[in-house]
Design a protein that fits this description.
Elements lengths: L1 E8 L5 H18 L3 E7 L5 E8 L2 H12 L7 H4 L5 H12 L1
Antiparallel strand pairs: 1-3, 2-3
């Protein structure tokens, strides 16, 4: 088994919306594509979300990530960034349109 440690810093006050997004969207999609989730947790300060995604081996990791990121299910930044404040989201979207 190969584990992939993933650590995300979540904006202050936005952890609840991130956890909702993870449980309702990201985790199910991850499992749908055959990747495993060993565990997921937040740090004591409530600032970081940590999880371990698992694969059979390195070849499995490469194959499943290519399928996941190359699929019709495209993850929009707006969708994944649900933990951003509305002001941060608007500013980022305006910068990206340039």
């Amino acid at each position: 088994m190969v584990g992939q440690l993933r650590i995300y810093t979540i904006n202050k006050g936005m952890m609840d919306s991130w956890l909702k997004l993870f449980h309702e969207v990201i985790a199910p999609k991850t499992l749908e594509f055959g990747m495993g989730i060993q565990c997921a947790w937040t740090d004591e300060e409530g600032e970081r979300f940590i999880w371990i995604r698992t694969y059979e081996d390195m070849q499995d990791l490469k194959k499943k990530e290519e399928e996941f990121y190359g699929s019709d299910w495209s993850v929009s930044y707006t969708h994944l960034r649900a933990h951003e404040t509305p002001e941060q989201l608007v500013c980022r979207l305006l910068r990206e349109k340039k």
